[in-house]
Amino acid sequence: MSDEDVQLEARLAEQEVFEPPESFVEQANVTDEGIYDEFEENWPECWEGAADLLDWEEDYDQVLDDSNPPFYEWFTDGTLNASANCLDRHLDERGDEAAIEWVGEPVEEDNITYTYEELHRKVNEFAAGLREMGVGEDDVVTMYMPMIPQLPIAMLACARIGAPHSVVFAGFSADALATRMNAADSEYLVTCDGYYRRGDPLDHLDKANEGLSGVDHEVERAIVAERLMDGDGFDHDYADNQVAFEDVIADNEGATVDPVDRDAEDMLFLMYTSGTTGKPKGVKHSTGGYLAWAAWTSQAVLDIKPEDTYFCSADIGWITGHSYIVYGPLALGTTTMMYEGTPDYPDKDRLWDIVEEYEADQLYTAPTAIRAFMKWGKEYPEKHDLSSLRLLGTVGEPINPRAWKWYYKHIGNEECPVVDTWWQTETGGMMITTLPGVKDMKPGSAGPPLPGNDVRIVDTEGEEVEPGRAGYLTVDKPWPGMLRTLYKNDERFINEYWAEYSDTDSDDSDDWVYFPEDGAKIDDDGYITVLGRVDDVINVSGHRLGTMEIESAIVGVEGVAEAAVVGGDHDIKGEAVYAYVITEDGYEEDEELRSAIIDGVEDAIGPIARPEAVIFTPELPKTRSGKIMRRLLEDIANGEELGDTSTLRNPDVVSDIETKVQGD
Length: 664
Ligand code: WT7
Fold this sequence. Notes:
This protein has 2 domains: 475 residues, ANL, N-terminal domain (Rossmann fold); 122 residues, ANL, C-terminal domain (GMP Synthetase, Chain A, domain 3), CATH 3.30.300.30. 30% of the residues lie in helices and 21% in strands. It has 22 helices and 30 strands. The strands form 8 sheets. It has an 8-stranded mixed β-sheet, with helices on both faces.
């Protein structure tokens, strides 16, 4: 490093507050600090501005109906269609502009640009096809596909005919697909033959078919998008109820489908996410409030303008991709990028190559990716001209200040604000982050709540804790993008998110408090540092995994008597899965069983849940009442000093396990 570099690093390492770069402020969508007070005083009418970003078929009567908490209704009696908002209304002015820039794995030079006109046409044709197959309003259509253009086409086609979609991440297992289709009574599936990972073709239909065989009701139709090139195909015979995506499009060439008028509260989609129990939660999102929230936050936080090329590197199989690859950006009429591959193939500068080639204005990614970029070294971004970038964002997990600063300097050249956005599948969109043209940034802290959001950090009694002290994150007021319920399970919805801090007998909205199950602390200036989950959910590379789900997969393996799963610190992934396993009598604690356990987890959930370590132990540390002391297992996984173990029924087991982990 040159002297200059050394000085710069030293300065950055010490700097705790960063002002929004002047060049950014000059052009930012939001620059008036007064927005915070204004929204507070004018709540909930402040959200009219978000609704105004959309075209409504029928105007709404009331911004918020809070008469039956926590079943809040937003923009009541308004009607609209999400696909019309994302496509049709842009045709006049932006029909020839790119809606989606799809960048494939470099198998052949086959990147595709979809103009708004072209995307609109495909969506109409596919919507016509879905209708013909019998998909009606409110029928849930499941999608199990990777980052190929047919995915957003199918999503928008569903939105057009009022059929909610339920997208299942392609990396999830066949079992996970079946569980989700069963839970949603979904009779339609859109999937694909296969795709490419680091240059190699991967079978996907096999896995989809296996999933379909686990569906407990009749599946009307499965539509298969064909991504693999000739010769790469795995031999697939389509079943009688299976049809190629391209045939559906071809059979409906030129067809148009009027966008169905949906009530603001009608379900736009379902998204399953992990919770404390083994059963995934079907988070239900609305059409009006959700879309307004996705559009408003895209504009205010990501600073998206129609002429931008915006790049979010998430997968559409997660909520980030729903809100910030598909719905938010397209509602604003911008160009949204969609990248099929991984950041390190064909080389570790792949993302920078894409940013340079497409002159991306924003990049929205995850801390786990940033930590990997850091490890690979600054020489990769330095090979490219990244000067088109104007704003950087992160989401999914806390970002450590060192990674934040690396991102700020080596990707943003100290000229781009970094927005660290805290939110969840359930919140529909961003909740806590700096407004990039208004607020100073403090690396490691997500920032203040967005205007109009009432976030408090409380103790177990619900009393606000002092600044600097750790407590529980709560949201005291509803917001348009919030989940409406858990699909067909209002009771679980209340128990999971509200019961902790609300007076559940009250019908006064003020007595209801949303609990996201995160820990956090707040500074004197209102900046919030999110500390992580406080439930039995671990965050691996920004993906949420339920420890119970993993444990039940493990105890399903022959030879396993009991299992406890915790998250251990991991340099790149943030957290990694540590599995403590007790074998059944007569089974060896050997490599064979260890790989059976790892395979069992992959089969039940998917490779993301793969245990980093499987630790055999004769016992698990338990309290006298028989509860597993997970915190202790976490400390052991992290090699930390152990606190008081005297409350344990079996304190001796701790040192045994410690010796094993250290020996691993
Ligand atoms: C959980 C939600 C939001 C889309 C991706 C994940 C953690 C998310 C941050 C952040 C600290 C964060 C929380 C949250 N999280 N963003 N900026 N700082 N933690 O969605 O799978 O629903 O997970 O991710 O723990 O509860 P999700």
